[in-house]
Specification:
Blueprint lengths: L15 H6 L3 H21 L7 H11 L10 H6 L12 H6 L5 H11 L4
């Protein structure tokens, strides 16, 4: 027979000054909420490291077909000195100049590149 484990209580640590002042529930909730929002904002502001064009196009190929078609664009992007973090801002005309003529290709490249902005 399996033994039943007792439920462990959840303990929310509070700094000593907060405990000492006897703050009310509303003040505690506001303090806790502000703390969570601050942590959330810090995570949102943290950027992913920007991959090389080679790694970027390999990533896109592996996620969207693995045929090498995206990697074939690398040289055109290098020739125009375009970096990965610039891709999401390219216009349709600029994509066409680079040989990215299919709308689906553009949408995918912009979608993945936005991860690095």
């Amino acid at each position: 027979m399996q033994s039943i484990q007792p439920i462990q209580p959840i303990i929310i640590p509070m700094s000593y000054p907060l405990l000492q002042t006897g703050i009310n529930q509303e003040t505690f909730n506001q303090f806790y909420s502000n703390s969570l929002m601050s942590q959330s904002n810090n995570l949102q502001n943290r950027k992913l490291s920007i991959p090389s064009l080679d790694n970027f196009f390999k990533q896109v190929d592996s996620e969207y077909g693995n045929t090498g078609e995206y990697l074939s664009f690398k040289e055109a992007f290098e020739n125009e000195n375009i970096t990965t973090d610039m891709i999401s801002e390219l216009t349709d005309n600029e994509f066409e100049k680079l040989g990215v003529i299919k709308i689906g290709w553009r949408k995918i490249l912009r979608k993945v590149a936005k991860l690095y902005n």
